[in-house]
Amino acid sequence: MAKSLVARKGNIECKTKVKTGCATCRIRKIKCDENKPFCQKCVKTGRTCDGYEPPFRLFTIPDVKRLPTGSIESDGGLQSVRPTLMEIDPQHVDLLNRYFSTKTLFDVKLGCGEEASQVLQASMTDTPIRHAISSLKALREDLETSGDDPASMAQHSPNYHYGLQQYSMALRGLVSSLSYSSPDYSILKSALLCCQVLISIEQVRKNYAAMAQHIIRGFGIMHEYRARPYLSTADTLVPAYHSQIPFLDVFIIKLFAAPCKFADAPATTDENGSSLSPCPISPRQETVEARHLRTIAPDMRTQLTRIATSTIEFLDKVSRVETLNIALRLLSEKVALLDSLESWLSNLELIQTGTGAPGAEPLSVSFLRLFHLILKIVLLGALDSSPDLDAQLQTENDRLQRVADSVGDRVKTYVTCRGTRTGRVDRSPVC
């Protein structure tokens, strides 16, 4: 009897722990087939699949001192929104639409009024979204008041600290709501709407690495819970798992497609009138080829923006597709858009190779690469459920994160360099 118990204990200890898969298979300690949104092993055996670990994860931001909730006076802007409101003030919608992107500092019209209205409507009953809006408002006001002057950045205002505090509270609330093994529609909607604001917050903070993390995780939610209809491997049209999930991808494309101020550090001179090297983000010598690349970059952006407009139109068709024949025709349109993206990238590489400009490429071109990768990721996931899709998306997500990490580092260098050279800086480059 004793030997039998020892043998059974040994068998249990030798079993490999299940670290992936749905919650039900992990509890049963069996290999999960990891089909989304529900594991087929659970479905076929009549069990309830309890879903997967949430794609959102909390990543750290600088610790801030806790401030009293009422320590920042409201000026009648977004902070005055309370859950008891029954209607959305159009002025609040316009203000949030403006705060979504730092491009609006240059009088750019963003065109995200519908998204702003959805976010504000949800904030009436959703605490994390409310915290996120308060954070965005405080951080944006701090940016507009203090600018990018290194001296002001070294001594952050109460608005800035309050904004980080609200950001931290929004993240904690969002992670808590997504901790459910099978989040329902209301939780998914809240997560994607909140994600829109978090992406905007990180743009204000010039933390493009964290911005990319939010983008990738938001796209992960849309992909995992099938925000749009898709074609199965058997050429069967499968309806959206959750209809009316907010389309985060369209929002992000709008952010990047909006007109942009190209900001490349100019050369400066010393007291003797001698030319000094510009910041590391620009070519070290202002050659004819380098100037040519700067001239070409806006035109390359125009071409990419046209593809972005076509991508939004394509996504709208995918959302409304009802028959297999139409879906198959849309696949051809998708292939054409992906080909256009590859052609655009090839042209950009040819231009850069032809200029032979030394040093790093202009920061504006790096932002175009970010935009290109976002469009490619969005298009790859549309209408598709092929076995190798997850691997393809992971590869492109990794590329997006690497480019965002590089852009973030270079923007910090840009701000520091401009502050050192001139004592003040223009608004930071925007995507």
TrEMBL record:
Residues 21-49 form the Zn(2)-C6 fungal-type domain. GO terms for molecular function: DNA binding; DNA-binding transcription factor activity, RNA polymerase II-specific; zinc ion binding. Pfam families: Zn_clus. Keywords: DNA-binding, Metal-binding, Nucleus, Transcription, Transcription regulation, Zinc. SUPFAM superfamilies: Zn2/Cys6 DNA-binding domain (SSF57701). This is Zn(2)-C6 fungal-type domain-containing protein.
